[in-house]
Amino acid sequence: MQGIARIYNLIIHLMRVLAGIQIFAVFVLICADVLMRLAGLQPWIYSTIIVEYSLLWFAMLGAPYLVRTKGHVFIDAMMILLPRNLKIVSAKISYLICVVSSIIFIIYSGDLLIGAIRDELIDFRAEEIPMWLLYFPIPVGFVFVATEFMRYLIGTDSMYGERTDVRDNV
């Protein structure tokens, strides 16, 4: 079991690193595109579509790590007002909703991915690109997101607490 956990953790961290590399590559590509336009040169024809696809890819690759490290956006204003027992129950309900929502995204995006592969759909822009490249990161990312929320649901760790406590430094 520890071997599976180690491989899973390696995949999560690899996805995070790939997302970071993509963010930097998009930054460089946008800067190069702007500089080429300012210099009166014709920018690379593929830069726009690469940036558009990368936005989805790095969001989906980085999402599981953000859930794990409690770096995603959530609001706990009501949670801090609840008594401890009710806070635990509310948190578990919240995690369950997140798991179910992620599974719904997996099902629908997986259906889109399978349909794009089966029907050989093509995205016609600057160049013909298979649509499955656009759909692929969505179900994969949400599988890992659902797994991370499942860890909160069945584990003892909580998204709420230390990371979100407001402290006045007066």
Rg from Cα: 20 Å
**Please, what is the oligomeric state?**
single chain
* Order of strands, widest sheet: 1-2
* Secondary structural class: mainly alpha
Q: What is the tally of beta strands?
A: 2
Element pattern in H and E:
HHHEEHH
Q: What amount of the residues lies in strands?
A: under 5%
Largest beta sheet, briefly?
A: 2 strands, antiparallel
Shape: elongated
Distance between the termini: 47 Å
- Can you tell me the residue ranges where pLDDT is under 50 for at least 5 consecutive residues? 164-170
Average predicted confidence as pLDDT: 87
Number of helical segments?
A: 5
Q: Into which percent range does the helicity of residues fall?
A: 55-70%
